[in-house]
Amino acid sequence: MERRDSTQTSRRAFLGTVALAAGAWESVCHAMSPAEEGTTTKREKPEKGFRFLQPFDGGILHEQCGPPVLGTQTGPDGKKRLRIQVTGFVPPGAKLEVFTTDGQKIPVTIRDGAFRGTALLRERITEITARTTIDGAPREIRTRAVWAKNARRRFRCYIDDHSFFFRDIHKKGYKSIFDCFYLAKLRQLHREFGVKINLNCFNTTPERDFRLSMFSDKYKSEFEDNADWLRLAFHAENEFPAIPYKNATPEKLAADFDLVAKELKRIAGRAYTAGLQIHFADVPPSCYKVLADRGVKMLQTRGRKRDCKKPKLCDYHLPDDVLEYLHYNQGWMHFESGLIFYNGFLGTCEWTPVDKIGPNLLTWIENPAKSHLLNVAGHEQYWWPFYKNYVPDIYKRYATAFRFVLDRGYQPIWIEDGFFGGAE
Known about the structure:
alpha/beta, Immunoglobulin-like, 2 domains, five-stranded antiparallel sheet, five-stranded parallel sheet
């Protein structure tokens, strides 16, 4: 327990930086960041003096996100197109061709070494190429725009670090899973607000006095009967050590994932989901495919300014330019794996007083570049009276957040449904 308390203190201090602590997130508007100075297909260093500024390679766009989006128009086939601005830099005096892979030529104007044009996106992913000649040699750069069609205001609720309710039900032998007060409270939130709640689970309790293999499958039908609003996903093998997969091999992550997923499928059947959140939001790029191959589509992370002096945490080893892009924008696609990393804000958490929840959410909601996908998130431990950092009004905090986002037109989703978090 001593190890647990000391570790928890540091962990709480860390999570406070990413949760809804008052003032923890600044109110930002979409701006041109240094990261947007062009990225190429393989994220190699762009040709000096020849690069895209917009769109950012892999950046998720929708019609209400702001620059580089200019609006929509209807094509001759009656289908909607997304109009975006295409900008970049080219050496003075160079002739330039800009076009898309589907043959659309993009007329551009060039002034003082900067080029500007307008493209119409028809597909979900559109590659844009710029071609010129520099010092007698042909040069070509590319960027890819990703269009989340039919995006709407939506929110997901996920709660991390689950093991206590499994142990409680196992020890007490309840007739129903909702005889456990914690699941009963979550059901009450669902009944009151119509929310969908994703529980990210450990294989064992922190003390390792319980593991999922000990849990009976007799509740499987009850979990399945409630799978429309309650789902279980992998989180990690145990709460400790912190950041367990920061330097994990693909084999280690795969083994832990498969162990927990197998037990959750046995316990909950179709209430199992791949719509997880990884413990401490970190795995190396070599592990991306492990997650994608197991059905993971999106991973919550957070943006970061390039000049930030704080230690890097919860960032999935993403490059600095991508992290900076996510500081100002909502989502980015890693094309090699197909995973989408998104910055969705922690809409409520254990350290946010009820009176701060609305104002903090509002700073996010009022920012068009990041307002379409929100999180309401937290951790199981704080619901339990025996826990050192128990929060007596935790139900009220979640209820306040749900009421706030629902009143502003947000709809509950499963993050694994549709493209970019149930947008379609």
